[in-house]
Amino acid sequence: MSMETTLLQTWLAEETAIRAKVSPFGVSSREYLRSRNGKDFLNGVNTGETPPPPIAELMGFVLISAENGTVVFQGTPGPQHYNPSGMVHGGYAATLLDSAVGCAVHSTLPAGKGFTTLELKVNYIRGMSDKTGPVRAEGKVITAGGQVAVAEGRIIDSNGKIYAHATTTCLIFEI
């Protein structure tokens, strides 16, 4: 068995285990959001304490991990994500990347702080189809200050191919 096959099996097993634990999709209250630091809030998704957001249901992706300044999402592009030319719409990659880089910023925030995306720049490297298989969007904070944070991210498959990369600037504020 090749290393790529083993990694793919690991990715699929992680996703299955996480999906078995998450609560129904929903939106957290402002009070709940205010009461937790970003890392704990995000990790609550995978323990069933925090509802996963409706966008994750719509797009079919799941939070894999959230550490301080680093977040990973996984999704499998399919025909439901196609544009009229029969390839996965660029908005699928942009949404995965916006989630990964934004949540990477969120993972660094103390309780009572929130963020919003000010700018997202996506570069597409190659197209995706329903043959691509699972992809991961990895977000990592470059710098985070009191009011502004910058992060970068990329989408890769289990073979290490890169499909897109992005940078973001986020505004940090009191909730």
TrEMBL record:
Q: Which domain of life is it from?
A: Bacteria
Give all residue intervals belonging to the Thioesterase domain: 86-161
* Key words of the record: Hydrolase
Instruction: Determine if Hydrolase is one of this entry's keywords.
Output: yes
A GO molecular-function annotation:
1,4-dihydroxy-2-naphthoyl-CoA thioesterase activity
Which stretch is the leader sequence? none
Kindly give the InterPro entries that the UniProt entry links to this protein.
Answer: HotDog_dom_sf (IPR029069), PAAI_dom (IPR003736), Thioestr_dom (IPR006683)
Provide one Gene Ontology cellular component. Answer: cytosol
The record ties this protein, via CDD domains, to:
PaaI_thioesterase (cd03443)
Q: Spell out the protein name for this chain.
A: Hotdog fold thioesterase
What's the source species for this entry? Pseudoduganella rivuli
Taxonomy of the source species: Bacteria, Pseudomonadati, Pseudomonadota, Betaproteobacteria, Burkholderiales
